[in-house]
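Workshop exercise sheet. Pairs work together: one partner reads the sequence aloud, the other fills in the structure field after running the prediction. Swap roles for the next sheet.
Pair: D.N. / O.F.
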Amino acid sequence: MTHFSDRKINELLEGRIRAGDFPSAVYLVGFEGEPVFLDALGKAVVRPESILATPSTIYDLASVTKVLVTTLLAAILIDRGELAIELALSDVLPESVGSAIGRTTILELATHTSGLPAWRPLYLLAEDREAVLEYILSAEPSPDRDVVYSDLNFILLAAIVEKLTGRKIADAASELIFKPLGLKDTGYCPSGELRRRIAASEDGNRFERETCENDGYLTSEEAERRAERWLRKEPIWGEVHDGNAYFMDGVAGHAGLFSTAEDVFLLAQQFLRGTTSLLRTDTCQLFSRNFTAGQYSEDRSFGFQLASTKDSTAGSHLSPQSFGHLGFTGTSLWLDPIKQVIFILLTNRTHDRELPFVNINSVRRRFHDLACEALDRNS
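Structure field:
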């Protein structure tokens, strides 16, 4: 893929690399299905060895998995008439019948208005991967149904996808998304020979251990024993960073996907009417429609945050109907359905960094603004 860099974008990212916000960044900006700007800066791995980032560097996408896998698979099922946003969990998952969360709808899960808590250390609370669903179904949702962004919502959505397709989420994604799009560098649990192409993450799960300690989860010998098993201490490089996804064998609906900027670009095109090949164009309206207007603290579409949300990372130039998603490892994806523009910024902000990690939302906003200005100059 021929690619061109933009000087101002490069200056922004190089400056943040020097400041220690993240050791590497790969960005791609595309218009009407064609890449316009693509470049790689910094080092994908600093320790235990030094490896420069390239446009083909593979990143742990973290929560961007929620949209590129789980949301897209749910939309495909909606497209086929096998799922509907107004259906309740109990209509699809028999094991949820009678639970407090059973009447929660598909749309409430996808817009994070289910009342489920933001996060739980499932590796400390569930016996094994199979017990994760049972644990989440036993949760008491909050009566306050404001937007609370929660991994648990998308673990449940993945369970629904698995129920309806009869396949594990990774197999469903491979068959219904990755293979039809011809993706070569995208998937869960990357093989060992890909390691030197993968951007490294944190030195162990220090952040999660600190969170567990602060939230009072490590108060028993059993909790400490489980933490010793599941919260890693060695550098995380070539396997998923997220602790719950790691506990779930690296495959989950909320995290676990690895990919390159170029493959993310092909995936992102599936959400736009002008470029999708996996969805009916009408279905793409789900991603720019505001389902939480007026009564919630965020504007959310099906799976995504909307640019009309106060303090979103979209920046000042994207259309209000633009939609995007972030990943904890330092990744982000935004799409403008009006301008038919896709913005991808992949960093590994958790690597070679002492706690606390830097909040890079201001960098994301500035990146989007500069990218829009560069597109205008290029037109």
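Discussion prompt: Residues 169 and 190 are 15 Å apart (CA to CA). What would you look at next?
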